[in-house]
């Protein structure tokens, strides 16, 4: 996530902007940007399937709730 809140692909996996903190919200996972945690920016997906800007996300929105995958 960049400083404008846009998601992007990064070649370097150790880049600070690519680290997200996973947490539980009921039965859902949410992913908070570690670099912009002080702003409360989450990874979110719009109904159209496009990524939602971090600055437009808030705790409790459906756009930031992801179903966890079971590993078998």
Automatic annotation (TrEMBL):
InterPro entries hit by this protein: Fibroblast_GF_fam, IL1/FGF
Pfam families assigned: FGF
Gene3D superfamilies: 2.80.10.50
Signal peptide: none
Gene Ontology MF: a single term: growth factor activity
Family: Belongs to the heparin-binding growth factors family.
Name of the featured protein: Fibroblast growth factor
Lineage, top ranks: Eukaryota, Metazoa, Ecdysozoa, Arthropoda, Hexapoda
């Amino acid at each position: 996530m960049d400083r404008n809140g846009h998601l992007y692909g990064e070649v370097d996996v150790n880049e600070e902007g690519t680290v997200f903190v996973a947490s539980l919200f009921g039965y859902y996972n949410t992913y908070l940007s570690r670099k912009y945690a002080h702003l409360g920016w989450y990874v979110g997906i719009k109904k159209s399937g496009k990524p939602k800007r971090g600055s437009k996300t808030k705790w409790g929105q459906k756009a930031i709730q992801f179903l966890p995958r079971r590993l078998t």
